[in-house]
Write a structure and sequence with these properties.
With 816 residues, the protein is of the alpha/beta class. The strands form nine sheets. It has a seven-stranded parallel β-sheet, with helices on both faces. It has a six-stranded parallel β-sheet with strand order 19-31-30-22-29-28, with helices on both faces. Strands 2-1-4-3-5 form a five-stranded antiparallel β-sheet. α2 packs across α3, α2 packs across α15 and α11 packs across α12. The protein is globular. The two termini are 47 Å apart. 40% of the residues are buried. It binds adenosine-5'-diphosphate and zinc ion (ZN) (2 copies). The site of one zinc ion (ZN) has 8 residues, from loops.
């Protein structure tokens, strides 16, 4: 008898054993997909982990349903990495699988089959069984796989369906091979007949009597000089206030030419890739140091101040790696926020770059996956957020983790709750590849690792072009309030600087880390503020939609006119968000263009790219936004950055609040004065003598690091202690309470005082589940794996207790 161990995309246990025949056993290899029955009627796609002859004890194995691949789609590197991840983050291989594979690979029994209506089908090509499916689909627009099983009266239908797909007869919706239709865009350029100045001049003369056409032409010149990329016809139309008829007539006259390009190929220069920039002296020194460091360390941290030109250094390293025929993974915290960077890299490396992004359609992701698997040159450089870590690399030579301090490298939910930066370090080791972390404000952990020689460290202290770091001024708004020098939320100092910048036609960025209008509405008569019915939080007022919204579960309701408790109509708002700042600005500066960038305004497709473009074209004077603003934007004309209120950052209840505030404020400040003139930053605060603000204002990372590290040592936090957080959730508060106390007591038997809690978090109920946390702290000298095994054994016993069967437990290793 032959068996295979299969990883299924469910969190129950590590692997499931199925039975195969000898031929199948010979054919199957680790990393191939199989469809297997599960439970009464489900079919799952799983990945073969192992083929063997060891009969499992205690249960009958079922045969598999279908083999789905001819070759493995997962390689040995990945399997090893998944196994590491499951054991390190205390989860199952199935959970890792689910995070790792694009859904397109995971055919489930829910999959819907439809007829492919765009193609005419030659029935003679279909065999009897295939025809049955085809016929069924003509009377019914779509069928589930299970329907097809009953129509054909056989359980094994994948082969039939695959053949029908090959014959283009059917389409399988969403889950598999959703057809990839590249989006096509139309572009306009000047006909090559007019490239000489002479001809051009004549042309403009002849168009004197066609002012509309002339306007289009002039706009095209302006746009081409502003942007190095191709000019889209819609953009041209918009900017020249024209219409398609005018543009078309110019094309007819052969003055303009139109051409079409796939959307995902448009970002880079069409004629040829730009030359890689030669590095400045200090960049060159840093690059040499990095290369030297790589001789001794697998991981190196590049600590380079904002706008020091880190990206250009990455570019050199990437160039070298691909010339050696290796693959490169460039990880970024949030890919949606980095359109600027992507086009910059595409300028250099053109088609060698693929972007991997969870917002891409399933088929696009499958496409990138396959390109990486087959080591295609067009996927030699991958740019992606944390999930790009899971791609089937086989020749990885270089990994870059840009903005390594960013919290979004950590996945909090669902499991695996992994940190992509740390997992990348392990991946690099498996591939014997080098890893470069980069940041202007490194995380305490990484800097600690660098200082203690676990990583190499290279610093770049000068901005590119020797531009000075922005000048940071702290403004005491308590004082300003007392002296009545505040207009709304703006101090006189901030207004002065805004006016100055506007006068000089420079742009301004204002940062407020809360969205909405105001976080709390309070009745001045009885003091009650409206709460979310599902969560223990106050609702946030959004003036624009006149709604109260919960930022935890999305619940919303129209704003009430009077207090729900006492009926009084004196409702007051407390605190403020981006919406309120935007409105105040519109009143203060009615003649200027004001825009807002936060989760609420960024929902629409391309909203982000549009704002960036508008900023670059100087169509926006003042941009208000949340931390989205801090993510590596590079603008030429921003001379002033204002922080509306630094205090709520600092007061956040988390052991990293101070470190994070420092990082965020430095990053936001870094958006000012990136070219030419020295930038100015105004930080408004009630507490200008706060240590962190003082450190921000003089750009003193090292002092911040020393102080914070001392706090961490004293209060037993990372990097001195490791942490594992167990979260207990229950509909009933009482049950949650009992369960968490049981757990704490069980854990304490061995781990004693290093078990903390249960502690109720500031928001004690979300989506109708009560929440409590248990924290396990692990000192350096204590074995991590033994501790994890112990926790696992406790959780196992917990799961056997009937009373707790409805308690949700999550385990988060390195929960910070
Ligand atoms: P960082 O990533 O460190 O914030 P960037 O790489 O974005 O800095 O560089 C800041 C600015 O300086 C960018 O506009 C970039 O194009 C420019 N720059 C950096 N290095 C060079 C170079 N060697 N030659 C020309 N321009 C450069
Ligand atoms: Zn009231
Ligand atoms: Zn809620």
């Amino acid at each position: 008898m032959y068996y295979i161990d299969v990883i299924l995309p469910i969190p129950l246990k590590q692997t499931f054993t199925y039975q195969v025949n000898k031929d199948e056993a010979i054919f199957l290899k680790t990393g191939m997909r199989v469809a297997v029955p599960f439970g009464k009627s489900k079919i799952y796609t799983g990945i073969v982990l192992k083929v063997h002859q060891l009969a499992p004890q205690g249960y009958e194995t079922k045969p598999i349903d279908q083999i789905l691949d001819e070759f493995p789609i997962i390689n040995e590197f990945q399997i090893k990495h998944w196994q590491w991840m499951a054991s390190y983050y205390l989860c199952t291989l199935g959970e890792v699988l689910k995070a790792a594979l694009p859904n397109g690979f995971l055919l489930e029994s829910e999959t819907i089959i439809t007829l492919n209506s765009n193609v005419s089908i030659d029935y003679s090509e279909l065999n009897d069984i295939e025809f049955l499916v085809f016929e069924a689909l003509q009377s019914q627009p779509s069928l589930h796989i299970n329907d097809i099983r009953s129509i054909l009266d056989r359980k094994n239908v994948m082969g039939v369906l695959n053949n029908l797909i090959k014959k283009k007869c059917i389409a399988i919706q969403e889950e598999v091979y959703e057809k990839y239709r590249p989006k096509i865009k139309r572009f306009i350029k000047l006909s090559s007949r007019y490239t000489s100045e002479e001809n051009l001049k004549n042309l403009l003369d002849t168009l004197k009597r066609a002012p509309k056409q002339r306007k289009v032409l002039m706009t095209l010149f302006t746009l081409s000089s502003q942007e190095k990329k191709a000019i889209e016809s819609v953009l041209l139309q918009k900017k020249s206030n024209s219409n398609s008829a005018v543009i078309n007539s110019l094309i007819k006259k052969e003055i303009l030419e139109e051409y079409f390009i796939q959307k995902d190929r448009v970002e880079f220069n069409l004629d040829k890739n730009s030359e890689i920039k030669s590095l400045s002296e200090s960049q060159t020194v840093a690059l040499n140091e990095i290369n030297k460091s790589f001789n001794q360390n697998d991981v190196t941290l590049l600590h380079g101040v904002t706008s020091s030109g880190k990206t250009e250094i990455y570019v050199q390293l990437i160039d070298l790696a691909i010339k050696q025929g290796r693959q490169v993974l460039y990880m970024l915290p949030e890919i949606a926020l980095t359109t600027q960077l992507i086009s910059r890299l595409q300028n250099y490396f053109g088609e060698k770059i693929s972007v991997y992004h969870s917002k891409y359609s399933i088929s696009e992701r499958v496409e990138v996956w396959n390109n990486v698997l087959n080591n295609k040159s067009k996927a030699q450089i991958i740019i992606g957020a944390r999930s790009s870590l899971f791609l089937p690399f086989s020749k990885l030579g270089l990994l870059i983790v840009d903005e390594e301090h960013e919290p979004s490298f950590k996945q909090y939910a669902p499991s695996p709750r992994y940190n992509a930066r740390d997992s990348a370090v392990v991946l690099a080791k498996f591939h014997a590849a080098k890893l470069l972390m980069g940041s202007a404000t490194p995380s305490l952990e990484s800097f600690y690792n660098a200082i203690n020689n676990r990583y190499g460290l290279v610093s770049l202290k000068k901005r590119f072009g020797d531009i000075l770091m922005p000048e940071i001024e702290l403004v005491d708004i308590k004082e300003k309030h007392r002296k009545k020098l505040m207009k709304g939320h703006f101090s006189d100092r901030l207004l002065e600087e805004i006016n100055e910048a506007l006068k000089n036609k420079e742009q301004i960025i204002l940062f407020q880390n809360r969205r909405g209008y105001s976080p709390v509405i309070e009745c001045t008569t009885c003091g009650i503020s409206p709460q979310c019915p599902n969560c223990d939080v106050s609702l946030t007022f959004h003036q624009y939609k006149n709604q109260l919204r919960c930022h935890y579960c999305g619940y919303h309701t129209p704003k009430m006119i009077s207090c729900i408790a006492c009926g009084s109509e004196t409702l007051d708002s407390k605190g403020f968000g981006t919406e309120q700042i935007e409105l105040e600005l519109k009143e203060l500066f009615p003649d200027h263009q004001i825009a807002r960038m936060d989760q609420d305004t960024m929902k629409r497709k391309n909203a982000y790219a549009k704002i960036i473009e508008a900023l670059e074209l100087k169509e926006i004077d003042i941009l208000v936004g949340t931390q989205m603003l801090a993510k590596g934007l590079d603008f030429r004309h921003v001379s002033l950055v204002g922080v509306m209120n630094a205090d709520n950052l600092l007061n956040f209840p988390d052991f990293r609040a101070h470190e994070r505030s420092f990082q965020l404020l430095q990053q936001v400040a870094g958006r000012a004065g990136r070219t030419k003139k020295r930038g100015k930053v105004i930080i408004q605060t009630f507490n200008p003598y706060h240590q962190i603000l003082q450190q921000v204002s003089v750009n003193n990372f090292e002092e911040m690091y020393d102080h914070q590290l001392e706090d961490r040592r004293q209060f037993k936090y990372p990097p001195f202690y490791r942490m594992i957080k167990i979260t207990v959730k229950e509909r009933s508060f009482r049950k949650m309470d009992i369960a968490s106390i049981w757990l704490v007591n069980a854990l304490k038997l061995k781990l004693n005082k290093n078990v903390l809690g249960p502690e109720n978090p500031p928001v004690g109920r979300i989506r109708n589940l009560f929440i409590t946390h248990i924290l396990v702290k692990i000192p350096k000298e204590q074995s991590l794996s033994k501790t994890k095994n112990y926790i696992n054994s406790i959780l196992k016993s917990f799961n056997t207790i009937k009373e707790f069967s409805r308690v949700h437990l999550t385990v988060d290793v390195d929960n910070y």
